[in-house]
Amino acid sequence: MSITSSSTLDSQLTTVWSPTHSYPDGPLVMSGYPSRTWQHESQPQFWSKFQVWEWLQQVMDIHQIDASSIPLQNFDMDGHQLCSLSYQDFLRAAGSVGPILFHSITELKWSGRSVRPTPIFFSLIISEIYEPTVNTLAPDATPVSSSPDIKRSFSRGHQVKKHNPRGTHLWEFIRDILLNPERNPGLIKWEDRTEGVFRFLKSEAVAQLWGKKKNNSSMTYEKLSRAMRYYYKREILERVDGRRLVYKFGRNARGWRETEK
DNA sequence: CGAGACTTTCCTGATT
DNA sequence: TAATCAGGAAAGTCTC
């Protein structure tokens, strides 16, 4: 690692992780389940919009729900607003995923400090969604199976992925940053929205963020870009010749189009 | 355990 | 010169 390369990264991160974002990102203790992905120390009432977004992504990751399953713009709010949402609000905003989010935030509100989501409860909800005949939900939850909204969205293919190691794929991670510009502090931007062309503005910062997600502090743009190049063959991305840091979504990339939902 | 998907890591060489 | 791009090769990490 040369001095110049690290200072490049520093300058990118300084811009990205401005003082409003504080992430206790010290040495992570690898002790199983979500501890490594659950780093919100403060109460959700005091979260920034960006922290709300992170919480959202983490809950989705933990349950291997594709982020495009819900309109993320419905959660363009800070922690205070988030905490004031009712169960019905969550249903409206996130459909079938609403109950999962509602329970997560309820737990966090009650505990006041970092608490892990309860996977058993969630698996109950998930199985309830898949097998509506079963009726064994926690007492405080609205009967999930009775919601037509849930049935509709889950029959649409919003299901847990079969093979999705470590939750989100790289291209989905990139896509989700693009789709949330208000929580994307100048990392990547659309060059041609309808064609799916985008450009990395802060390549090393994006790599750091990706590494953070994968719990890999040594991620670099060099390595991230190798993974991106593998997407060409699978037509998840198309080559954009002659333009540095520019990529284009391919025919096998889903969920990035404005009209697609 | 094995296979396969999806990276991650490393590398050599070319291009901007 | 540094940053980026191109891919080959092989290892690592998951899920099924």
UniProtKB/TrEMBL annotation:
One of its GO terms (molecular function) is sequence-specific double-stranded DNA binding. SUPFAM superfamilies: SAM/Pointed domain, Winged helix' DNA-binding domain. The keyword RNA-binding does not apply. GO terms for biological process: cell differentiation. It is found in: Nucleus. Residues 26-112 form the PNT domain. Residues 168-250 form the ETS domain. Its main location: nucleus. GO terms for cellular component: nucleus. Keywords: DNA-binding, Nucleus, Transcription, Transcription regulation. InterPro entries: Ets_dom, ETS_fam, Pointed_dom, SAM/pointed_sf, WH-like_DNA-bd_sf, WH_DNA-bd_sf. It holds the Pfam family Ets. The keyword Magnesium does not apply. Belongs to the ETS family. This is ETS homologous factor.
